[in-house]
Amino acid sequence: MDADAALTELQHINQLTILDLAYPILNPSSSSATKRTSGVSDASNQANITPALLAADLAHYRDLFSKLRFSYVEQVTKERLLRAITSDPPEFVESSANAELGEKLKVDKAALKEKKEELQTLIGELEAQGRSLANRYENIQLQSAQLEALPAEIEHLQETISTLQAQQEPTSSNPALSLPLQPTLDFLADREQQLSDLDHQIALLRAAIPAKRNEVENLKDELAPLQMRKMKSVQEAQEARRRRQDGAGIGDELEERGRWLRGVETGLRRMLEV
Predict the structure, then answer these.
(1) Are 247 and 255 within 8 A, CB to CB?
(2) Which residues lie in coiled coils (predicted)?
(3) Domain boundaries, the chain
């Protein structure tokens, strides 16, 4: 069954009301059905009956039935009293019969009170269930209205998608820009993971910067004497070159020292057989 057929079936379901459901119970015979008041008949035929209207009708009927019960009891009491007075011979009731009747009335009143309590509990449960059903019915009506509007919205969205597809720019040469939704999300997740890894590496490198700076400072401190020695050696070499160019190279002290050191090195190598 498609969506249109389901909506059509929902729309053709007859709307039920509490009075429609209670009518066969309250009026089992057709003769009693003809005695219903016009207000009740009109209320049962209304399709837009609300819980507030039903509560008002219930309060009205409860007040009416209370008055009818009082009138009935009064009328029956008067009738029995007149029948007892006007009968021949008159009916006389003894005190023992009155006492017995009083005890029976007490028992009947206690049973009636218990029945009333049970009835009140049952009415409370029915009211709670009725409110729950009313809320569910309202939700179903709202959802039905939304479902009725859904095909038109889907058609409008499809037209919008077609228009946007027709107006979109030419496909890019980059295949990453033409991926479907799920591959695009996967690609984006991979890029975000790579960025996260790079951020972690950057954080580690930033944490190692102070130690590296201390190491560089130590190396600079160690390099300073070497630089001084280098500069001194360069100056000595330049001075030796200048002396050699001036003709004092044969008796130069440094050259003699170098020859001596080379001779010593050669002798040591021969001795050590290196």
Answers:
(1) no
(2) 98-167
(3) 3-93+119-154, 200-272
